[in-house]
């Protein structure tokens, strides 16, 4: 009995698999697409942070005051960060507690933005 060797385009007589050649991947195009996606996500995040600063009324602070408050938040203990997370969640729900004057109906992230937001500790929020 004579065995035939698998030729491109035929099936493998031993394993029954298709022996056709796969299409080569274009790694450059995939890398460019990932780079473009990362840039779009960074731009979106920057826009959301700007909206958040305005919605909370923090745009009334000087840039130095805002930076100092953020640096203090990063270096705070876990209990304080948890209290801020709860206050922020209430803000996004519109529960009032953390609302500042001038925010009015300019709330952001009530459903889509707040769902995946990060707390000051860098962990995913559960708002």
Describe the structure.
This protein has four helices and no strands. 5% of the residues are buried. The chain is elongated. It has 127 residues and is mainly alpha-helical. Among the domains are: 27-56; 61-89.
Q: How would you describe this structure in keywords?
A:
0% strand, single chain, disordered C terminus
Short characterization:
Helix content is 49%, strand content 0%. The chain has 127 residues and is mostly helical. The longest helix is centred in the first third of the chain and has 30 residues, at 27-56.
- Tell me how many strands there are: 0
Head-to-tail CA distance between termini: 70 Å
Describe the biggest sheet?
none
Secondary-structure element string: HHHH
Structural class: mainly alpha
> Helix content range of the residues, please?
40-55%
Rg calc: 26 Å
- Strand fraction band? under 5%
Q: What general form does the structure show?
A: elongated
How many helical elements?
4
Question: What is the element layout, followed by pairings?
Answer:
Layout: H1 27-56, H2 63-74, H3 78-93, H4 112-115
